[in-house]
Amino acid sequence: MAEISKIYQNTRVPLGGYILSNKVFPEYKIKEWYLEAFKAGDKQPGDWSGFHSPNIMVVATEASGLPEEVFESIEGLMTGNSKLVLAYNPHYTTGYAAHIVNDPKVVNHKLNCLDAPNVRAKKVLIPGQVDYEWVKDRIENWCESISAEDAKHLDYAFRFDGKWYNPNDIFLVRVMGEFPRESEDVVIPARWIDLAIERWLKMNKEDIEKGGNGYPLKLGVDVAGMGRDKSVLMPRRGNIVLNPKQYAQSDHMALAGMIKSEIEKEDKSNGQNGNDKPDMVKRATAYIDAIGEGAGVYSRCREQKLRVVAVKASEGANLKNARGKIVRTLTDDTRQFTFANMRAYLYWRIRDALDPRNEQPLALPPDDELKADLSNMRYSYRSNGAIIIEEKDEIKKRIGRSPDKGDALSMTFYPERTIPRVTAIHA
User: Fold this and answer.
1) Residue 381: in which H helix or E strand, if any?
2) Which own/partner pairs from 290-295 qualify as long-range (CB within 8 Å, at least 24 positions apart)?
3) Is this model's pTM higher than 0.85 or not?
4) In a domain, 138, yes or no
5) Residues 317, 344: contact at Cβ < 8 Å?
6) CATH code for position 294
7) Do residues 376 and 399 touch, judged by C-beta distance below 8 A?
8) CA 208/CA 217 separation, integer angstroms
């Protein structure tokens, strides 16, 4: 590896010995004594068994991101006087690196940037080390100013320049070296979901059924198929999500009829002056997954002149006008993040809607499946910086089923401007 050779040749203090390929040997050329560096992905599980010694030391960097099978291979080497050193930022609350810290045989060392000499002195004493201005900037962006009294009841509250702060998870990981309250790759923090359910439970039935600040009903439809036995209808009105409805698998025409019934019932309730002509702006809309099984249902709803929108999760995350022309790239509420596809954008919209800092955050019904769907979504970044949600197969492995209710809710956040104001059919 070129990096090893470069580091070896450019050290301030000569390391001695000699380098051969990706190994560094001592001067005495004892074959059993050497340092070897490699990427974990370069080794197959069986390759690790080739290391034989009662005194092996394995040093793994970025350890929180290593696959479990790598650690299984490493464990096979931990015999005799062998040692394991893991260095990492604690991004995730699951996995080998997160669990091993609780092992009584493990010695843990943590580095907190708040204790760095440069930060405490407010000047650079050690060039290259984190400094005061860097930490101050992170506090302004990632921490909440709190009172001294509130600080007594918070686990990670800290004092900086005479003021008390409560850090968010990003600050915990990247500045304080602590594990996050939630894994850093979780789309929606479980605590936000719990708060949304608490808000819903505090409402009376009338608030729930007719609430949402006068917004029209949006009906997310996840159609059964591909081994699933139930279709999901997820109604949302403004910031209030109503109880989802599930229907046993039936033909597409029957499901289209159920959607028609829900929409017409809502539209009739919005009728004005005693007639059945609702305000166009307040008309109910069904958002249907139009890929695969949902295509037939969508087509039938169009034939019935219902106000429906075809949602294609795999399409680009772009805002389109009524003619289908791209207007702009979609971003999150802060306009900092872009998305690899529409699915990633829609789930992030749920996240933004659940953020407790909103004036009127989303209220969710106490549905265990919906909660599991939303709390188990993970994300990562593509090379261009766009956010992407993990594949459904990975989620199914964790929760044992498809996240149908979460998918149905996400459809209700499909970009508004793609819907024609007057025409009932969306092309």
Assistant:
1) strand 379-381
2) 292/223, 292/225, 292/226, 293/223, 293/224, 293/225, 293/226, 293/252, 294/221, 294/222, 294/223, 294/225
3) no
4) yes
5) yes
6) 3.30.420.240
7) yes
8) 12
CB-count exposure of residue 11 (10 Å: 0-12, 13-18, 19+): exposed
Name the residue with higher pLDDT: 214 or 142. 142
- pLDDT tens per residue across span 236-291: 999 999 999 998 766 788 899 999 999 998 887 765 434 444 454 568 999 998 88
Residue 282 lies in a domain: yes
* Domain match, 258 and 397 both: yes
Whether 310 and 391 map to the same domain: the answer is yes
Q: Give residue 274's pLDDT.
A: 40
**Cα 227 off chain centre by:** 26
How far apart CA 108 and CA 320 sit, in angstroms, is: 52
Q: Last residue of a domain, which of 100, 121, 153?
A: 100
- Which amino acid, residue 342? M
Render the burial of 258-292: b for 16+ CB within 10 Å, e for the rest. bbbebbeebbeebeeeeeeebeeebbbbbbbbbee
**Range of the structural domain that residue 247 is part of:** 190-418
Q: List the one residue out of 346, 350, 347 whose CA is nearest residue 363.
A: 350
* Residue 108 falls inside a structural domain: no
CA–CA distance, 317 with 41 (Å, rounded to integer): 32
**Statement to judge: residues 69 and 8 lie in one domain:** yes
| Closest listed residue to residue 140, CA positions, set 189, 175, 181, 180 | 175
